[in-house]
Write a structure and sequence with these properties.
It is built from three helices and no strands. By secondary structure, it is mostly helical. It has one domain. It is elongated and about 50 Å long. The protein starts with 5 loop residues before the first helix and ends with a helix.
Length: about 100
């Protein structure tokens, strides 16, 4: 049986979220420069806020990992949130690049 490091899984998922936000954000910024619509500006703002949130998550998992040391539930819960966010961002990237 494979032992899962929930903190490491959370860091990896947050890193993947940063990559997804970066690629979609690149498209949204390029399109905003071309079309100047408020929807694209909103998507650029969304990407910026979510990037900050994911960088803060990576920092918290690295620096405060011992905070969750006694709670497997907390590790699984916060890693699960990163996984749900990954699925949402993957679908958003799919429609952005399609």
């Amino acid at each position: 049986m494979v032992t899962v490091s929930w903190v490491l899984a959370g860091i990896v998922l947050a890193g993947l979220n940063v990559l997804l936000l970066g690629t979609a954000g690149f498209v949204w910024v390029s399109n905003y420069r071309k079309f100047r619509t408020s929807l694209l500006l909103g998507l650029v703002g969304f990407a910026a806020v979510m990037l900050v949130e994911n960088f803060m998550t990576i920092y918290s998992f690295v620096e405060w990992g011992r905070l969750y040391a006694d709670s497997t539930f907390a590790k699984r819960f916060f890693t699960g949130l990163r996984g749900i966010q990954f699925l949402a961002l993957a679908s958003l990237n799919y429609v952005t690049w399609k």
